[in-house]
Structures are given as C-alpha cells and as structure tokens.
Design brief:
single chain, 178 residues, alpha/beta, five-stranded mixed sheet, 7 helices
Length: 178
C-alpha cells in the first residue's frame, strides 16, 4: 500500500499513524511537498512543465532559507517513485477539499494514467466531518492540520472509496483542463 499525501506535515502525520499501527514496514508514504494552488501547472506532467513551474517559483518566491532546490528535488523524487511503482500496486490518496490538494489529486491520478493499479481516495474533509467533527467544531483546511490520532481513526475506520475507471478518467480529464 502506498499512501500519497500533499505536504510535509501530512506526510509526517501519516508516517506516524503507520508506525503506531505497525504498518510502517509494509506500507509507504509518497509526499508531494508543493503548493499546487499557486503558480503554473500547465503540462506539469512533463519535464517542460516542471521546468516552467520551478523557474516561475524561483523568480517570484523568496528563498531566504534556500529551500526551493530541495523542494524541486523532493517533487522529482516523488514523481519518479510514483511512476516506477510496479503494476498491481495499491494507492491511497489523502486529500482535503482545498485547491492545493484537489489539484494534487487530479495530478497524481493523471500520473498513474494507464497503470494497472487500485487507487483509493480518503477525502479527509468528509472523513473528519463524519467521524470527528460532531465532537469538535474545528474544520481542517489541509490534511496536515489533522492530528495523527484523528488520521489514525479515519484510516482504521476504512473511510476511503475505491476510484472506478470512470472516476479516474474524470479526474484525468479535469487535470488536462486545469
């Protein structure tokens, strides 16, 4: 099982969940640590699109901590790991109802286009509202804002749905439209 998340915080939380459940040796996490709600995403599934995006970020984002180069390496590594997963792999994509993670969902689904694999979706906004929110009025805007113990409840309760071929095609087409 490969868990796909958007952001370093979500990655750390899911890794902690897997470790606490004793699944950290059999399941892995691929993190896309980019903010896909900002900047160009045209042809991001191609090298030219990645270059355009990274150039745009370098021109417009402050990099006082010199993190952009590391971010670029991290994104390329995540894409490489995703593309070279064997046929028959099982993926779980975790995403909230925000522009960044919803764009990421479409992007990752497109990257998996044509791959024979199972893809499940955990909509963390819906899961949080159904399982946790009645006890708590807080509504997370990003998966990384949800505490690991709450993500563990979401994972343990199986709050995910398998994407059908129709779902996948629709998300792939939405990526191309974006």
């Amino acid at each position: 099982m490969i868990h796909i998340v958007f952001g370093a915080s979500a990655s750390g939380s899911i890794k902690q969940v897997l470790r606490e459940m004793g699944l950290d040796r059999s399941e892995e996490v691929i993190a896309f640590c980019d903010i896909l709600s900002v900047g160009p995403i045209h042809k991001l599934h191609e090298d030219t699109g990645l270059r355009t995006r990274f150039d745009w970020m370098q021109e417009r984002m402050t990099d006082e901590f010199e993190e952009l180069a590391d971010q670029q390496k991290s994104v390329k590594k995540a894409i490489g790991r995703l593309l070279f997963m064997p046929e028959g792999s099982r993926f779980v994509i975790w995403c909230c109802d925000n522009a960044d993670e919803q764009t990421g969902l479409r992007y990752v689904t497109y990257l998996l286009k044509g791959k024979v694999c199972d893809i499940s979706l955990v909509n963390t906004t819906e899961a949080y509202e159904d399982l946790i929110r009645p006890k708590n009025k807080y509504k997370p805007l990003h998966t990384g804002e949800i505490a690991p113990e709450k993500l563990q409840t979401i994972y343990r309760d199986g709050f995910r749905r398998v994407l059908t071929d129709h779902d996948r095609e629709a998300l792939e087409m939405e990526w191309m439209a974006l």
